[in-house]
Design a protein that fits this description.
Blueprint (H helix, E strand, L loop, with lengths): L2 H5 L12 E4 L4 E4 L4 E6 L7 E3 L10 E6 L7 E4 L6 E6 L3 E8 L8 E20 L2 H4 L4 E5 L2 E6 L2 E8 L4 E4 L2 E9 L3 E10 L10 H16 L9 H13 L1 E2 L4 E2 L22 E2 L3 H10 L3 H15 L9 E2 L10 E2 L13 E2 L10 H15 L8 H15 L18 H20 L7 H18 L1 E2 L4 E2 L26 H14 E2 L2 E2 L18 E2 H13 L3 H12 L11 E3 L4 E3 L5 H15 L6
Antiparallel strand pairs: 1-2, 2-3, 3-4, 3-5, 5-9, 6-7, 7-8, 8-9, 9-14, 9-15, 10-11, 11-12, 12-15, 13-14, 16-17, 18-19, 20-21, 22-23, 24-25, 26-27, 27-28
Length: 605
């Protein structure tokens, strides 16, 4: 039997939670339990994928290293306080370990995979199928000085092993097979660079491993949280760091595109961009956990991204603040679990969402209060945003959740307009050296507050509603006490928390809103429980005096992380599966903030 035929894995029902993340803070890869890298975009998070099996089949690109006869691994885990992944297989012949990492790049992105014999003698097979442009382009492969070189259009990838092992081409793939005994190691390095440039300097894979472990542990040592579930909180912070784009300080919402919110459904979106909605919560998590440098870089990215005409403020931007993120479909990819269409880009970029003005104002206010160095033009930008809001706040918008069913007067959006005015007023009250229209903004703050309480509140049910005049509810209303719109002990707040838990509860967690409500989001099908909203519910329960309930919910949420501590966007309580793009920054931000809210000052024990 040919080596490749013997090593080809049996078909498995892949799950989103089967994946682990490695990355170099400029892009990231997803590694499955079968030892296959099924998603990798080079050279940036938002570049076209060269491994797209995640959204298709093997021939759409992947790189699998595993024992010849194995299917899924025996165990895996990150080395403590790092983003270095160890995957082990126990076989009849012995045990082998594969260590995966992407070292911090100096010249070009590298994927390092080190195979090590743990016991016995194990035959290992490597199959590399490079497919540029999301699985649509098969590159030309050649040999060059001990390397395998793949070239197609603008992309070039070099593959080498140390020591060199037998490698051959078959089925439009590059295959290697070798045997490792206890203590023996074989390292593979895959390097990308623009095809018109020379090959970058070679990376020492073993030194890269040592440096990566040291660098990550030095970074995680700065974490100031020492309460319960510290390991899970640190893993969430590492994930946020891994989703950061180091050159600019931006943080992508997720490393992936089009992982479904409903298996087989159409709610599949590209999340490889930076959302303003995440700004305040991200900033708060980084500051509270002791990462002021990262918080300052995120704040600086935010200021650069929103600079310009306030009327042109977008809900999301590219990694460097790019504004054009056109949405289109990749019709050659069948999608994860048959979930189509597969989308790249995000058409919601053109929506009006008034809440983002409040998010920006709140973030910059928080940064100023936390003592981050101010920027000379920061207050001027804030004044321009307020001038725009003075007239624009009365408009309907698409709201926080980017609905595609038409604009409405969403209550959360109006509350965040109030936040914008409130933060502007507080800044002027606390900083006499700044100039602004204090009385006008006070009046605006009061007017918005009155209108929301009149039009966005249902006195019969004692709850705020999703939009003016509606009966529907929305989990974003849980943020009302957090942003200071009303105090936590206000009966309207308590009533809203109870109503949302009753109406939007789903298997012990929380949905964002009712997707069956006619015409609200404009999309067919449903979705799972939204994890960030479930963390918000825990926060709201704590703020309204029900801390024991909040801690029980937090324990259930922490229990949803996969075997390496990662969370996607949503969770299906009926099937016990994670849903949506992965890993999701919003979910991990929620985990960190809720831990800090519930256990601030406590020591793990």
């Amino acid at each position: 039997m040919a080596p490749w035929s013997a090593g080809k894995p049996a078909p498995v029902d892949r799950r989103i939670e089967d994946y682990a993340l490695i990355g170099d803070e400029q892009t990231a890869a997803l590694v499955g339990r079968d030892g296959s890298i099924d998603w990798l975009c080079l050279p940036r998070f938002d570049s076209a994928a060269c491994f797209a099996r995640l959204l298709g089949e093997e021939d759409h690109g992947h790189w699998r290293i595993a024992p010849r006869s194995a299917t899924t691994c025996t165990r895996r885990g990150y080395r403590p306080d790092t983003l270095v992944l160890d995957t082990e297989w126990e076989t009849a012949e012995g045990t082998v370990r594969v260590t995966d990492l992407m070292p911090q790049r100096e010249h070009a992105p590298d994927v390092v995979r080190i195979v090590e014999g743990v016991s016995g003698r194990v035959t290992v097979h490597s199959t590399l199928r490079l497919r540029f442009d999301y699985g649509s382009v098969i590159p030309w492969m050649r040999r060059s000085g001990g390397h395998r070189v793949a070239v197609a259009g603008p992309d070039s990838v070099w593959l080498r092993s140390e020591p060199s092992v037998r490698t051959w081409g078959e089925d439009f793939g590059t295959h290697s097979e070798f045997t490792v005994a206890e203590g023996e190691r074989v390292a593979f390095v895959l390097t990308w660079h623009p095809s018109h440039e020379r090959r970058p300097p070679l990376v020492d894979p073993y030194q890269a491993l040592r440096s990566s472990v040291t660098d990550w542990r030095r970074w995680t040592a700065r974490c100031t949280y020492h309460g319960p579930h510290r390991e899970t909180v640190v893993r969430s912070l590492i994930t946020l760091k891994a989703l950061s784009y180091e050159p600019t300080g931006g943080i992508v919402a997720a490393a992936t595109s089009s992982l479904p919110e409903e298996l087989g459904g159409v709610r599949n979106w590209d999340y490889r961009f930076c959302w303003l909605r995440d700004s305040t919560l991200t900033l708060g998590a980084l500051l509270a956990a002791g990462y002021h440098k990262e918080a300052e870089r995120w704040r600086d990215w935010l200021v650069r991204a929103v600079a310009g005409d306030p009327a042109d403020l977008q809900i999301m931007y590219g990694l460097a603040g790019e504004r054009r993120l056109p949405e289109f479909e990749l019709d050659w990819l069948p999608g994860f679990a048959g979930s189509r269409p597969v989308r790249v880009g995000n058409g919601a970029v053109d929506q009006l969402q008034l809440d983002v003005y409040g998010e920006v104002m709140d973030s910059l206010s928080l940064a100023r209060t936390a003592g981050l160095p101010t920027k000379p033009h920061m207050w001027s930008i804030q004044c321009a945003l307020m001038k725009f809001l003075e007239k624009a706040w009365r408009q309907p918008d698409e709201g926080l959740w980017e609905v595609r069913g038409g604009r409405r007067h969403f209550v959360h959006s109006k509350v965040l307009v109030w936040v914008a005015a409130d933060r502007a007023v507080r800044t002027l009250e606390d900083h006499a050296e700044l100039k602004g229209e204090l009385e006008k903004w006070r009046a605006l703050r009061d007017e918005v507050h009155r209108e929301v309480c009149e039009k966005g509140y249902d006195p019969k049910r004692n709850t705020f509603t999703q939009y003016y005049g509606s009966r529907e509810l929305d989990a974003s209303l849980l943020l009302i006490p957090r942003v200071g719109f009303l105090p936590p002990d206000d009966p309207r707040v308590v009533g809203t928390v109870d109503a949302i838990r009753d109406d939007l509860g789903h298997g012990g967690f929380l949905r964002r809103y009712d997707t069956d409500a006619i015409g609200v989001d404009g999309m067919p099908g449903g979705e799972g429980a939204f994890l960030a909203c479930s963390f918000w519910l825990a926060d709201a329960l704590h703020m309204t005096g029900r801390t024991d309930e909040a801690k029980k919910l937090f324990e259930r949420l922490v229990g949803l992380v996969n075997d390496v501590g990662l969370l996607s966007e949503e969770y299906d309580p009926e099937t016990g599966r994670q849903l949506g793009n992965f890993p999701q920054a919003f979910s991990h931000i929620g985990l960190v903030n809720t831990a800090l809210t519930l256990f601030d000052g406590e020591q793990a024990g």
